[in-house]
Automatic annotation (TrEMBL):
Residues 1-59 form the 4Fe-4S domain. InterPro entries: 4Fe-4S_dom (IPR007202), ACDS_complex_subunit (IPR051069). Signal peptide: none annotated. Keywords: 4Fe-4S, Iron, Iron-sulfur, Metal-binding. This is 4Fe-4S domain-containing protein. It holds the Pfam family FeS. GO terms for molecular function: 4 iron, 4 sulfur cluster binding; metal ion binding. Gene3D superfamilies: Electron transport complex subunit B, putative Fe-S cluster (1.10.15.40). It comes from Plebeiibacterium marinum. The lineage of its organism: Bacteria, Pseudomonadati, Bacteroidota, Bacteroidia, Marinilabiliales. It comes from the Bacteria.
Length: 225
């Protein structure tokens, strides 16, 4: 996936002008690689001086391996369920954002590192708090175990419920209100999650109602497993 994006970037003008409605050429390349944008959206690329790049990019996108995100299945490691989308961090961030609801009645602060275990997950997580709204904590993952600097202090948050994920997605087209199966890049078990899409902007998505149980399609119906 990353290799395709880099190949596409080689043929884009690289001005980051925003005429394509994306913040950068890299964001536009990501959208092109997932068939979420069209070459014609880049007005700079339509200029005569970029005719060679335009032709080369067109040929690249027409190749079957240029659409690998659409063609390849996204499959979890633990239960081998197929996901609809793969969830990556937002640009410049270390992991997808998670919104947590701690069950412990403790006081937490932005910037603090917490140790917690998500409900239904057997793995202890370590995360840095980046936002606090009432009892809800938005965090970035910093480690699945104590591989951090031993001098780093953290607070135990005990058992927490993950209410939402936010990140950049690749895979099938999704819409608000749709229940999707997704695989977070930072998940240590590489287990498929499920949730409801509440907001989509370009390739950025917010998914709420998160569950480690997933809807697995069968021949006649969808069954929750």
């Amino acid at each position: 996936m990353k290799n395709i994006v880099l190949q596409i970037l080689e043929f884009l003008p690289g001005f980051n002008c925003g005429s394509c409605k994306y913040k950068s050429c890299e964001d536009f390349a990501n959208a092109l690689s997932g068939n979420k944008a069209k070459m014609s959206q880049c007005t700079m690329l339509l200029q005569d001086r970029f005719s060679r790049q335009r032709k080369a990019l067109s040929e690249l996108l027409q190749k079957s391996d240029a659409n690998i995100i659409e063609e390849c299945k996204i499959v979890g490691v633990i239960d081998h369920y197929e996901a609809d989308i793969f969830l990556e961090p937002l640009n410049g961030e270390p992991s997808c954002r998670e919104v947590l609801l701690p069950f412990l009645n403790e006081t937490y602060s932005v910037g603090e590192i917490i140790e917690y275990r998500p409900l239904a997950c057997p793995i202890t997580h370590y995360a840095r708090i980046i936002k606090k709204e009432g009892s809800l904590l938005t965090v970035h993952m910093v480690g699945p175990c104590r591989r951090m600097d031993r001098n780093v202090k953290y607070k135990s948050a005990g058992l927490c419920m993950i209410l939402a994920f936010e990140g950049c997605y690749y895979g099938k087209d999704i819409k608000p209100g749709q229940t999707v199966r997704f695989l977070p890049k930072h998940c240590m078990m590489q287990k498929v999650h499920s949730g409801v899409v509440v907001n989509v902007v370009d390739n950025r998505v917010l998914i709420e109602g998160v569950d480690l149980k997933v809807w697995q399609a069968s021949a006649t119906t969808n069954v929750l497993e």
